[in-house]
Specification:
eight-stranded parallel barrel, 8 strands, alpha/beta, 335 residues
Length: 335
């Protein structure tokens, strides 16, 4: 019987994004929203089974609710990684069936697995047998010429039937596996939300979460009239403050959202602790450059962090100085 973590909901999620949603990014986002479900970057089964697990799996307890996204296609290896995810304290395990990169295809996982629904079903079944955590799938609406709605429905039916998967996050663009880069696959194929909406209508017993092209909280809320959840990706990274009202507007929680200066203040002890462990400041500050987007002084904030965070010995004082300078600019404009 799969468990559901007390505060876990797919109503609003922040997408797994390679090179972006690492543990430092997730801790920062958690200071803005308590309830939005966060995902790790995709981690391959090989990295977990044969690599440095602390590097790939460690996270701060404050990041909950947190899902681990796995990349792989071997049922036994995915099952082993699902057990490890539970041991490490994750709240969910997600299988990546949506990434179109050449490197991922060469490893026989990601979006190319949409052509092998029976294998995906066996993978999910093995993972569900190995863990009490929820096991979910993130996929595309289709790949290459296999992109009719009937193809998507057939994939979902076989994965849910063989594997017992009850929750699918569907990126509303198909993936071209040859000829387009991962970046182009996020922009060129047209968005087809209607097919995700139809999937929910025709399979109401399944949890369907829509992903792709959602530019903020308003766009996500519009989707919630039709599907069970919405997943925001690049918009949440580039303009993280779009999540500031998520707890109230999406989850109905009372209480004011934190202010941007409060987020900076609460982040400082984390930066201090990680710097003491040897983490370079720039590895963390790169995730907070967009915190003040749209406000006077935002450019100076980005510039100061970009110029100073990489210097030898850089620590949280760099962020404090940048925040103090931004506050002075804001006060000056108000006066």
């Amino acid at each position: 019987m799969e468990k559901k973590t007390k505060n876990q909901s797919h109503r609003l999620c922040c997408a797994p994004m390679m090179d972006w949603t690492d543990r430092h990014c997730r801790f920062f986002l958690r200071l803005i929203t308590r309830r939005t479900l966060l995902y790790t970057e995709m981690v391959t089964t090989g990295a977990i089974l044969h690599g440095d697990r602390d590097r790939f799996l460690a996270f701060d307890a404050a990041e909950h609710p947190l899902a681990l996204q796995l990349g792989g296609s071997d049922p036994a290896e995915l099952a082993a990684c699902a057990r490890i995810a539970e041991d490490w304290g994750y709240d969910e395990v997600n299988l990546n069936v949506g990434c179109p990169s050449d490197r991922v295809q060469n490893g026989r996982f990601g979006a190319c697995l949409m052509a092998e629904p029976e294998l995906v079903g066996r993978c999910v079944a093995a993972m569900r047998e190995a863990t009490a955590l929820p096991v979910t799938v993130k996929c595309r609406i289709g790949i290459d010429e296999q992109d009719a709605y009937e193809d998507l429905l057939g994939f979902v039916d076989r994965v849910s039937g063989i594997g017992g998967c009850r929750s699918f996050t569907v990126h509303a663009r198909k993936a071209w596996l040859q000829g387009l880069s991962p970046k182009q696959n996020r922009e060129i194929p047209p968005l087809r939300y209607g097919e995700v909406h139809r999937l929910k209508r025709e399979r109401p017993e399944l949890e369907i979460v829509v992903n792709g092209g959602l530019l903020g909280l308003d766009a996500a809320l519009e989707q919630l009239d039709t599907v069970d959840g919405a997943m925001i990706g690049r918009a949440a990274y580039q303009d993280p403050w779009c999540l500031a009202e998520a707890d109230a507007r999406v989850f109905g929680e009372a209480g004011p959202a934190p202010t941007r200066p409060e987020v900076v203040e609460r982040l400082l002890p984390y930066l201090e602790a990680r710097c003491a462990e040897g983490v370079p400041l720039k590895a963390m500050t790169r995730h907070i450059l967009g915190l003040f987007n749209g406000l006077p002084g935002a450019r100076a904030w980005r510039r100061q962090l970009s110029e100073a965070a990489h210097l030898p010995g850089a620590g949280p004082a760099v962020v404090e100085r940048a925040a103090a300078e931004l506050a002075r600019r804001t006060e000056g404009l108000a006066a």
